[in-house]
Recover the amino acids of this structure.
């Protein structure tokens, strides 16, 4: 584009900064033509489009405007020139491919065999299916037939360029009928007033990348998306979106994947607006500001009608109340894969519990469990909160009708797991029964020392299973007897009105071997 072709609205670059031409003309007391520029960077300019009290143009920011001589600015290059410069007769091609390979395999030095053949293939434009021109300052296309130059092109990246309108984009895409992926991120494009007029030019695109569009609102994205009736993937990350309004019926009927990551969306209610997209199966909401997940008008244990097809959800780097969030996600009817960040110190069993809390979950943070492993997680979850289950109204027969509302809210899928796998063991009751059983098993004996009548008798309890040798050790410590001294044990009992003394002469036998019973007297001699 020659400087003479610059118009109001054209995008330009000057000394590394980019802006939009807002005014063209002469300024009093000066000679020659000036461009009034509204810079993308508010700190790049000096004023708001005014000079000596005269308002020449409007700016987005109070200090983003300045006047520049035409000779100072670059108006960019055509798509064809950018393609030929990058892929034909350009020694940088080999370097670019090498650097890409280095990044892929994380190697500092790479010797690529056959690079000359790769460069030769890239140089044959008619064979290219992918063209990456990010940052190449493409302004559009001139009068040439791109279909002849790039007949097989399917993926085109012209992000961070000097495109100024969707009409310029349409002039490119209508000449590339095989094109499916279009990345025009980082371009300041005017929102079309009649988007349907461009549908014939861009309607064959199925994957659209509109990251960092600088000034676009959600409504602007909806307006632009109406030009793409076959859209299956849409990326609108890094756009400072705080709200996502309702989606018009029929707009995203073909959309399957959506990326809204790194936008300051704080309310899950905004995300729920996306729940009406019928075929949406993958949603990326990484790096937003979501604190909780809540599906309205849905019972604690029910399924939501929103997101009927959603299988893959990414919500990494959100300040979520993670425990409650995983329970709420169980309301998604089709969710199978989840990527989420959490504090491993605060939630040491988060991985296991999340698999248990989301019924259909198969993959968590790219870890896939077998059905048996998932069942083990569910059983572990049941056991871990078994005491809380019983203290909240749970029953050993599996009846969950009496469960408290607080427990059901905290563990919404627990009752269903009880129905599917059976109730956990009532450890509180078990431990009580165990203590009672042990208490019944213990035998209480009166301890006397016949050869040392000065020592007071006392009562001590023993388990019948304890061995005689261990009883002697315990008594020596309690009676403060030299451990090296030999000790003899016997016990006396009364049967049929007669008193018997039974010698316990085998240290390796248990107390029960000698039929000793509670109330008998243990005789200790040394």
């Amino acid at each position: 584009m020659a400087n003479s072709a610059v118009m109001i609205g054209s995008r330009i670059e000057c000394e590394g900064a980019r802006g939009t031409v807002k005014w063209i003309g002469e300024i009093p007391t000066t000679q020659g033509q000036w461009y009034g520029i509204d810079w993308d960077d508010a700190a790049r300019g000096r004023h708001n489009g005014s000079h000596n009290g005269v308002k020449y143009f409007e700016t987005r920011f109070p200090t983003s405007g300045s006047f520049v001589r035409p000779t100072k600015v670059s108006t960019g290059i055509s798509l064809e020139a950018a393609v030929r410069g990058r892929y034909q007769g350009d020694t940088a091609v080999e370097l670019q491919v090498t650097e890409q390979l280095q990044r892929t395999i994380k190697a500092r030095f790479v010797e690529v065999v056959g690079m000359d053949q790769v460069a030769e293939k890239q140089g044959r434009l008619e064979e290219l299916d992918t063209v990456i021109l990010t940052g190449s300052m493409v302004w559009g296309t001139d009068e040439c037939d791109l279909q002849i130059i790039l007949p097989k092109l399917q993926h085109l990246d012209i992000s961070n360029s000097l495109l100024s309108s969707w009409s310029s984009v349409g002039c490119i895409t209508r000449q590339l009928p095989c094109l499916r992926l279009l990345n025009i991120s980082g371009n300041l494009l005017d929102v079309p007033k009649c988007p349907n007029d461009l549908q014939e030019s861009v309607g064959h695109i199925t994957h659209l990348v509109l990251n960092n569009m600088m000034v676009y609102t959600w409504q602007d994205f909806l307006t632009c998306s109406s030009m793409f009736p076959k859209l299956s993937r849409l990326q609108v990350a890094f756009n400072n979106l705080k709200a996502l309004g309702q989606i018009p019926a029929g707009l995203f009927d073909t959309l399957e994947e959506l990326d809204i990551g790194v936008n300051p969306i704080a309310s899950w209610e905004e995300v729920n607006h996306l729940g009406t997209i019928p075929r949406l199966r993958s949603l990326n909401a990484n790096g937003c500001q979501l604190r909780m997940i809540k599906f309205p008008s849905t019972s604690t244990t029910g399924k939501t009608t929103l997101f009927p097809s959603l299988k893959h959800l990414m919500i990494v780097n959100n300040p979520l109340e993670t425990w409650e969030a995983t329970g709420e996600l169980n309301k998604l009817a089709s969710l199978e894969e989840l990527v989420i960040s959490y504090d491993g110190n605060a939630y040491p069993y988060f991985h296991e519990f999340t698999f248990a809390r989301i019924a259909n979950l198969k993959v968590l943070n790219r870890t896939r469990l077998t059905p048996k492993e998932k069942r083990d997680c569910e059983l572990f979850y049941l056991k871990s909160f078994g005491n809380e289950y019983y203290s909240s109204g749970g029953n050993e027969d599996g009846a969950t009708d009496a469960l408290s509302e607080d427990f059901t809210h905290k563990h919404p899928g627990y009752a269903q797991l009880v129905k599917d796998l059976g109730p956990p063991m009532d450890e509180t009751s078990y431990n009580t029964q165990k203590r009672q059983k042990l208490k019944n098993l213990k035998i209480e004996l009166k301890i006397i020392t016949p050869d040392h009548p000065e020592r007071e008798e006392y009562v001590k309890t023993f388990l019948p299973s304890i061995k005689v040798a261990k009883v002697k050790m315990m008594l020596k410590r309690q009676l403060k007897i030299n451990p090296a001294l030999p000790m003899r044990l016997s016990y006396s009992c009364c049967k049929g009105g007669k008193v018997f003394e039974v010698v316990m002469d085998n240290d390796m036998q248990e107390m029960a071997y000698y039929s000793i019973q509670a109330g008998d007297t243990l005789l200790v001699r040394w």
Remarks:
- Residues 427-441 form the longest helix (15 residues).
- Residues 100-121 have pLDDT under 50 and may be disordered.
- The chain is about 25% helix and 20% strand.
- The longest strand covers residues 17-25.
